[in-house]
Write a structure and sequence with these properties.
The protein has 137 residues and is mostly helical. It has one domain. The protein has seven helices and no strands. Helix 1 packs antiparallel against helix 2, helix 1 packs parallel to helix 4 and helix 2 packs antiparallel against helix 3.
Length: 137
C-alpha cells in the first residue's frame, strides 16, 4: 500500500505522542521509534533530533490523529498499543489517547478492546518484528 506523506508523518507523530505521554522515554522506546522512522522514510538525523527534544517540546499538538483510511489507522493503533506496553507500566494515558484516535477514525470499540487486550498480554514481544506497519507498506 502506498502511504501518503501526511499519513507517514502522522504515524510517526502518533508514536512520539504515545512515547511522551508518561513523561519518560525509555531506551527501548527510542529504538522502536527510530526503526519506525526509518521504515516510514524519515532521515535518521531528523529522528535523533526529535527524540532528543521530545520531552521538552511543549508545542506538540496531542490531539487525536485522523488517517486517510481505516487500514492505516488500525495499523497505527496496533503499533501504538504495542509501544505503550513496552516499558511494563500500566499505560493509562497512552491507552486513552489511542482510544480517542480510534474513535476519530471510526474504529469499532470491540476491535480496539481486543487489540488492547492482546497487546497487554504480549507486552514482552518485539514490536518491530511484529509491527502492523510492515504489513501495509
Amino acid at each position: 500500500m502506498n502511504i501518503s506523506a501526511i499519513d507517514r508523518s502522522n504515524y510517526l507523530k502518533g508514536l512520539l505522542i504515545v512515547a511522551k505521554k508518561d513523561n519518560q522515554l525509555a531506551d527501548i522506546e527510542k529504538s522502536i521509534i527510530k526503526t519506525f522512522s526509518e521504515k516510514l522514510g524519515f532521515a535518521s538525523d531528523f529522528c535523533d533530533e526529535v527524540i532528543r527534544n521530545l520531552l521538552a517540546n511543549k508545542y506538540i499538538d496531542e490531539s487525536p490523529l485522523k488517517f486517510s483510511n481505516i487500514n492505516i489507522a488500525q495499523s497505527f493503533i496496533t503499533d501504538g498499543l504495542r509501544l505503550a506496553y513496552t516499558n511494563n507500566k500500566i499505560p493509562d494515558q497512552e491507552i486513552k489517547w489511542l482510544q480517542n484516535t480510534a474513535v476519530l477514525n471510526g474504529i469499532d470499540k470491540k476491535w480496539f478492546e481486543e487489540k488492547n487486550k492482546t497487546s497487554a498480554e504480549h507486552s514482552n514481544q518485539s514490536l518491530v518484528s511484529e509491527s502492523a506497519l510492515l504489513s501495509i507498506i
